[in-house]
Amino acid sequence: MRPVLAGLAGLLLALTAALWWLNVRGDGTLQGGAFDANDPRLVERGAYLARAGNCQGCHTPRGAAPFSGGRGIPTPFGTVYSANLTPDGPTGIGRWSAAEFRRALHNGRSRDGRLLYPAFPYDSYTRISADDADALFAYLRSLPAVSRPNRPHALRFPYDSALALAVWRALFFSPGRFEPQAGSSDAWNRGAYLVQGLGHCSACHASRNALGASRDPAALAGGLIPLQNWLAPGLAGQPSQAVAELLQRGVSDSAALLGPMAEVVLHSTQHLKPDDLSAMAAYLQSLPQADAPRRTAESPAPSQLQRGERLYDRHCAHCHGDDGLGQPRAYVPLAGNRAVLRDPPANLVQVVLGGAFPASTAGNPRPFGMPPLATELSDEDVAAVLSYIRNAWGNRAGAVQALDVQRWRSSVRP
Fold first, then answer.
1. Is the per-residue pLDDT at 143 higher than 50?
2. 173 φ, ψ to 5°?
3. Secondary structure of residue 211 in the 3-state scheme
4. What is the DSSP string of 70-127?
């Protein structure tokens, strides 16, 4: 019996040592060169990088001081609350060193060594260069200090335990750095760096497993955003010029960025340099597209299409036209629109029920939007009008079911 117990104890010790090593690897490579955190040029560069990373989006609750933290980030495992990034000593990062800040970005560990939850996308930020991390730190240290204690996370058991987080990291997180691809242009590598690192596009546009880890973050194949029921479409192989225009203006003649992506445009991408937007778009265009999933939904019944046509005439035609062609730079065309044909049609349901506006940008300061119809249309009405839109003017897509509308309605903001 004793040899068995000794063997089990040895195995447990080995697993504990492996778990510890997997969670601290890379910590000894964080030291960078000396820099002046008060250098105005460094602070300005850091401000640009913070925009590129849309840091304000998660770290600024509505009505609160910028970067003061406390915004709730819903996950399938509970709510994670963002940290105070202002230079307040007791509640912010005022007592942090540059090396500790780098460790948070590159290794997902706090100043005191605690493991950070991956709602803070350090699985992407690990690719950020040390110089860019230092610039971000200099910018954040230049902000007005705000005393705002960090709010404890509200996660369910066992996801609220340090052990569960350590196991998750051991399974799914590996620290690293961005390595330029030999043979590719400087612009392509710049785009890859922004998309994979600061832009953390995989946070929404990569499919995830049951434990919330990205299955293939480099593929950017898209998927439903947990709890929000917005579909983040696949980004691979999209025309670069159209992508760059959408990221800068929020709209084009044939599309508009709505929902969570409108917020990204508002706070982040519209402020980026044209060369950086072009680089990101070129990188995305170069990614291989995954095979389109086969359509499995049934075609809509004639009675559903007739009902949908009547509802379209009453609620939609005055903006999008009897022919579904819309109005350039105002109301997007529905005929031949890839967003209309995507499955699942979660975004269409969100827009019809909750309404949506593109971001206000320098190129489109007064965007036209979609009014909410949640109080006017039943689940069956929404299913009917969307089924009609997805099968009119040459469109061909599966029927939208009332049960799907009912399920997605629950996530529509009142």
1. yes
2. -120, 130
3. coil
4. --EEEETTEEEEPPP-SS-TTTSSTT--HHHHHHHHHH-B-TTSPBPPTTS-HHHHTT
Q: Is 160 exposed, middle or buried (0-12, 13-18, 19+ CB in 10 A)?
A: middle
Q: Indicate the pairing of strand 154-155 with strand 72-75.
A: unpaired
Best CA proximity match to 407, nearest among 338, 346, 354, 328? 346
d(C-alpha 196, C-alpha 408), whole Å: 30
Cα gap 390→324, rounded to integer Å:
11
Relative to beta strand 231-232, strand 154-155 is unpaired
Residues in the chain: 414
- pLDDT tens string 61-76: 999 999 999 999 999 9
d(CA 398, CA 401): 9
Task: Please give the mean pLDDT across all residues of the chain.
Answer: 89
If one counts every other C-beta atom within 10 angstroms of the C-beta of residue 143, the result is: 20
- Going by C-alpha positions, the residue among 225, 227, 224, 220 that lies closest to residue 205 is 220
Q: Phi, psi at residue 331, to the nearest 5°?
A: -120, 120
Tokens describing residue 234: 């696949």
Terminal-residue alpha carbon distance, the chain: 63
- HEC letters along 359-404: CCECCECCCCCECCCCCCCCHHHHHHHHHHHCCCCCCCCCCCCHHH
Letter for the amino acid at 294?
Answer: R
Contacts of 29 (CB under 8 A, 6+ apart): none
Q: 144-194, pLDDT tens digit by residue?
A: 999 999 999 999 999 999 999 999 999 999 999 999 999 999 999 999 999
> What single letter denotes the amino acid at residue 244?
A
Q: pLDDT at position 20, please?
A: 47
What is the pTM for the complete model shown? 0.89
Q: Which amino acid is at 397?
A: A
Q: What count of Cα atoms within 13 Å lies in the side-chain half-sphere of residue 101?
A: 28
- Closest by CA to 339, choosing from 234, 218, 214, is 234
Rounded distance between C-alpha atoms, residue 303 and residue 108, angstroms: 54
For 352-382, what is each residue's pLDDT tens digit?
999 999 999 999 999 998 999 999 999 999 9
